[in-house]
Predict the structure.
Amino acid sequence: MYERTAFLLAGILLGAIIKDFFDKRKEKRERIYAEKKEAYFGFLEACQNLANRVTPENHHKLGYWKLRCDLVGTPSVLKAINDFLSFDDINMAPHVTEQLQLVIKSDLDLD
């Protein structure tokens, strides 16, 4: 009788530990996803604002969002961001922009 109770309690405890582990893992993934999404879209908005109006404030905002992307972005996204910020041939603009969009969509699993 006591053995069954002990096994039952051990099973319940093990189930609770496993559930807690998976809940925390899911929460961490959701938090990382939200951070990436906010950083990427903030960066894109800062680029648009700077393109529409070149001001010191807009330059600072772009730098801020670039730093946020550096903190949470994947290597492929960071490379695309750096390529986007450093291209100097206007003919390359569509290609560089498209590449940035593709890697962000891929990283956020939007494709």
User: Anything to note?
Assistant: The longest helix spans residues 2-52. The two ends are 56 Å apart (CA to CA). The helical segments are 2-52, 56-72, 75-86, 93-107.
